[in-house]
Amino acid sequence: MSLVQRVLSAVGLEKRSTLGVNGWPIPLSASAVTPASAQGVSAVYACVQAIAETTASLPLILFKRTGDDRERASDHPLYRVLHDMANPEQTALEFREYMQACVLLRGNAFARIVRGYDGQVRELWPLNPDTVQVRRTPSGLVYEHTQEGVLTRLLAHEVLHLRHRLGDDGVLGVSPITAARGVVELALSEQEHGKNTFTNGAKLLGVLKFPGKLKPEQRQAIAASWASQYAGGANAGRTAVLDEGVDFQALSMSLEDAQWIEARKFSVIEVCRLFRVPPVIVQSMEEANYSNSVELARQFITLSLRRHLVAWEQAIAKQLLTEAGRRSYFAEHQVEGLLRGDSANRAAFYSSGIASGWMLKSEARKLENLPAIEGIDDAPPTQISNPIGAPLPYPSKQ
């Protein structure tokens, strides 16, 4: 090792060789999976967007308990923050979508809480999770946020902290791509393999055989010359001209031989498992049909979104409401619109509820976003002698 290499190695700037086996150049690529690189996999991006967009677009309502009933607390300052504007620069949807994406990609989401003179929350400002350090102190958790070289320390009651799955330290959450990094790495490798294969002419070229022994610099020069003349989609199908006894041995392996297509499909399923998203939600329709697509969409609400919705509601109660406020107020997502079936099933559901007496006609119209009709609940039920499509009784032999 030369003196320069020793100095570079000592300060952590060691220069690594770009030559592989027998002196041939090798590509350099980062092996670590980051949130940015993980989103380069379409299945990861689609799963994150499906959860983040749906969670953010659902109405998040602050309710006030009134005995055994409840009513919207539209006069509470927190109602506007959760439903309309999180801060002067971001709508509630934009804020919640970013926070939910941070939870899925990084395992944690942080937002600075701004309170008014009365102690009520007036604004929520998202913080980049990469710039936040959480420390446990005898007096509680401390959040250290660094922005443009300025360090700001925030106490636990000044930060809204959402976690995906609590880690072993009991403080930070663990994201799916961190817990199963190999799945995303494999998907990235398959994607890179396909890209390079098509870039190099959609097929593996082969091996060059030389009669004599070459020096490392000769191998590198020949490899660069060969790549410039015959690699790439524009050079696919060109005829190589060889001399000096050089022999070219073609390799016949194709993408089908390597089962690349099937591996790509399986990677989508693997990523969906990480985020607990039905594949049909991210447009993987191989196993979908008309009968099970509706049920899979409902499973997305009940099995995939429920955990995230409850996490939001409990974090709001814990960190945005006071002890006295939690006894009177609570936040809840309105998911009825996502769970609605087709018109025929809804009509049967309303008819059953009205006939059984546990639903009023006015309530059914309200759920359908129809205007109210005065006195509709006092009107007698409409008798239908023969519904459309109902078969007549089969005549007996008598």
Assembly type: single chain
Question: Strand order, biggest sheet?
Answer: 2-1-13
Q: What share of the residues lie within helices?
A: 40-55%
Biggest pleated-sheet summary: 3 strands, antiparallel
- Radius of gyration, in Å, reads 31 Å
- Secondary-structure-derived class: alpha+beta
Shape: flat
Order of helices and strands: HHHEEHEEHEEEEEEHHEHEHHHEHHH
What is the CA–CA distance across the termini? 109 Å
Strand content: 15-25%
Number of helices: 14
Total number of strands? 13
Count of structural domains: 3
Mean pLDDT, rounded to whole units?
Answer: 77
**Can you tell me the residue ranges where pLDDT is under 50 for at least 5 consecutive residues?**
6-30, 383-390, 394-398
Question: What's a quick, concise take on this entry?
Answer:
The protein has 398 residues and is an alpha+beta fold.
Task: List its traits.
398 residues; alpha+beta; 3 domains; 14 helices; 41% helix; disordered C terminus
Task: Give a description of the structure.
The chain is of the alpha+beta class and 398 residues long. 41% of the residues lie in helices and 17% in strands. The protein is built from 14 helices and 13 strands. A three-stranded antiparallel beta sheet has the order 2-1-13. A hairpin with a 2-residue loop joins β1 (60-66) and β2 (69-72). The longest helix has 30 residues, at 290-319. The protein is flat, with a radius of gyration of 31 Å. Residues 6-30, 383-390 and 394-398 have low confidence and may be disordered.
